[in-house]
Amino acid sequence: MKIDINNYEAYILDYLEGTISPEDKSLLLSFLDSNPELKEDLDVSMDLVLPNAMPVNKFDKSSLKKHVADEYELAPIDYLYIKEQEEGLTNIEKEEQILLEPDESNREAERKLFAVSFLKPDFLIHYSSKSKIKRFVFINQFSQLRIQQVAAVIAVLLIASAIWFTPKQFTKDATTVIADGDKLTETENTDNTLLAKTDPTIGNKTVIIKSPPSKDSVMQIAKDPMGVNNQESKKQGSIQKERIETPKAKKLIALQEIHVGDVEPVNGYELALNVMMPQYMSNNILSRELADIYQVIEKDDAIPAKNLALVESGVKVLNFFSKDAVSLDKYYNEDGKLIGYNLQGNNLSVKRNAQ
Amino acid sequence: MNVKEFNQAVDLYSDGVYRFVLKNIKDEDKAKDIVQDTYEKLWKKHSEVNYEKVKSYLFSTAYHTLIDLTRREKKQARWEEVDDNRHSFSDGYSDLNEVLHQAVDRLPDIQKMVVMLRDYEGYSYKEIGDLTKLTESQVKVYIFRARKFLKDYIGKMEVVV
Questions:
Q1: What residue segments make up the domains of chain A, in order of their start?
Q2: Nearest 5°: phi and psi at B67?
Q3: Whole-model pTM over 0.80
């Protein structure tokens, strides 16, 4: 490159630093000779020679250096033992190891200890549930996921068809017989009308079982078991238009009319409930109401034997449900005739003359 | 990976995964659950996982499940003020192998796992690093420190016994 007024200073710097090439040096000197004013402007002499650097004491660089073992926070000898087991040592590392631990027996003992620290897999341990996690191959075209989806759809269809084809069933299981004295209730069999499993009948008529009776209706039954008043009230205009007049229920059997060995249908269930329901519900009704019921029973002297039959049926029913919580004691005279009975329950005590 | 390869992976690696997990948590039921869970995760991604890398995938999944589990259990243990007697040598030992496993149990969890992966499965530092998402250098450091601890533990025990 040609030296000119624009770049000659760079060559002068190289010259002063001693890095200029011989060719450039001769070019620079000839340039300065041809331009002596530039030579005079220089602050430094071209003959300037930098003094030699002052000699310094030798610095111990090794004190700054780190051993590779420092990265592991281990002593170099330990690092070498471990590396020997893990990866093997280079020749330099072997020499270093000997330098650090000259005693061969010590080195051997340490090697043994490190060798022991290596774990060995326990091949006696097996995973016993492999079959649970394996997948099966059904059809190559179908992936496992697709099969699961198909199975889910089939399951949904099966459930839907089961619901569709299942016959409708009555879900109400409250079994109640409404027997308004000697009147029977007869309505069309709708979804809301339930027939008792036993289809209780009196005569040829089926007793229709409707929704559970209210407390008032039970009270009414207790007060007027024969339904005399009820009949009159119906004549005045009954709300239940579907009720129709039916023949009177068969006369309840008096004790004298019972003949051993004769079989005659008696609706004991109905009879028992009519009389004993007050006791059965005694925990749920007012004591005053209960007293009225008892009063009605006590006043009903017209057919005592019939009442006794009612009571006996009721006791059987109650004991069936309450595990013999009610007792019935009968009293006879010298002639062997029944003269009275005593009904004893948890909340009820009734003494009556039979004659 | 297809179904056949998945089932091969069950045959080939389930024992190893189970051993690895069991040695870490010492609970057979939990270990079986983790193995099953690991393979369930594999199954969900089996179409994406290359069969040649399935072993790594399994051990990596099991490892991270273990990490999560031990973290949760440690959180619970804080409330119970557990004294683990980390450097106590008062227990009775019958043989060297038992001593070694006692020592392994006293290692920090991360050191224990990488040593097991190294010794049980023969993984390289790099492979362990890939599994555990640690650098190769970190793996090496953990392993070297674990070796030193195990050697010291065994050495002291030999003196005691």
A1: 1-52, 74-116, 212-225+248-353
A2: -60, -45
A3: no
